[in-house]
From TrEMBL:
Pfam family, one: NMO
Key word Chaperone present: no
Keyword Transport: no
InterPro entries in the record: Aldolase_TIM, NMO
Source species, domain of life: Bacteria
The protein, known as: Probable nitronate monooxygenase
């Protein structure tokens, strides 16, 4: 047991990262049922869609699960209302500060876990009343910060007293052990679940995940202040060419418009946005979520550190 499993009432200190249009009830429910913390990604959902996903998740599992709230969303007020009405007791947050919502969330007994890219922001979240934080390093897939996981966790665990969950570049028992060594109370993983049987993405995307290696990702969007890590493909190559030509931001946005749906709905691995982390080289097969957890724990328990 760790502080995070005790806080959340989960069996294993393993979070499933929120991935837009991917982390629906199908995946979140499977992760929670297998002892981790499944997280529904509300980004891009309407209030009614989220309400339905919460209901579907409860049909899969009676174990704790969370909803991720992207605080920049225009319908964020409605999303938070659905969370409260549905009696969801755990949320993670990103893309902004939850300050506006903290009073009613805390009044309702909701555990709030912001995702942070720095020790400075982690401290701000602790001061706001967050119960824990996910510190996500730049190795992660999707929207990222600039600090790598190892120095980030070392800094965040020194800066705050609430539990820290490590994220970015973690997929197995070795990563779990490393996270614990740095002072975290658990891990959050996303990329490894892309290669799960329960993940609702096309097979072409899953195949791309398991054939990729640690150097297969690229970061786009740094010039616009919104870096995103994805698997390199025709779309990212063209995007970087345009970035280097200093084309207007609007032209870059036009190129990426609808690219996430192309990947996760259509399975277009050349023109879609295949968000994934640098841990890709460690993921070589498609497994059920329960098997992923079993493999992580088996490897973790077998680790013997050298005596010095």
């Amino acid at each position: 047991m760790t502080k995070i499993t005790e806080l959340l009432g989960i069996e294993y200190p393993i979070f499933q990262g929120a991935m837009a249009q991917i982390s629906t009830s199908q995946l979140a429910g499977a992760v929670s049922e297998a002892g981790g913390l499944g997280i529904i990604a509300s980004g891009g959902m309407s209030a009614d869609q989220l309400r339905e996903e919460i209901q579907k998740t409860r049909a899969i599992t009676n174990k704790p699960f969370a909803v991720n709230v992207m605080l920049m969303m225009e319908n964020c007020d409605e999303i938070v209302d659905v969370i409260l009405e549905s009696n969801v007791k755990i949320i993670t947050t990103g893309a902004g500060t939850p300050k506006k919502y903290m009073p009613k969330l805390k009044e309702a007994g909701v555990i709030v876990v912001p995702v942070v890219p720095s020790a400075k922001l982690a401290k701000k979240m602790e001061d706001l009343g967050a119960d824990a934080v996910v510190a996500e390093g730049t190795e992660a897939g999707g929207h990222i910060g600039e600090v790598a996981t190892m120095p980030l966790i070392a800094a965040v665990t020194k800066a705050i007293s609430i539990p820290v969950v490590a994220a970015g570049g973690i997929s197995d028992g070795r990563g779990l052990a490393a996270a614990f060594s740095l002072g975290s109370e658990g891990v959050q993983m996303g990329t490894v679940y892309l290669a799960s049987k329960e993940c609702p993405i096309p097979d072409s995307f899953k195949e791309k995940v398991i054939e990729s290696i640690e150097t297969s990702t690229v970061v786009t969007g740094r010039r616009n202040g919104a870096p995103v890590r994805t698997i390199r493909n025709a779309m990212t190559t063209h995007y970087i060419e345009l970035e280097n030509q200093d084309v207007p931001r609007e032209e870059l946005e036009k190129l990426t418009m609808g690219s996430l749906a192309k990947a996760v709905v259509e399975g277009d691995v050349e023109n879609g946005s295949l968000m994934a982390g640098q841990i890709l080289g460690n993921i070589t097969s498609i497994r059920p979520v329960a098997q992923i957890h079993e493999d992580i724990l088996k490897e973790y328990r077998a680790i013997t550190l050298p005596k010095i």
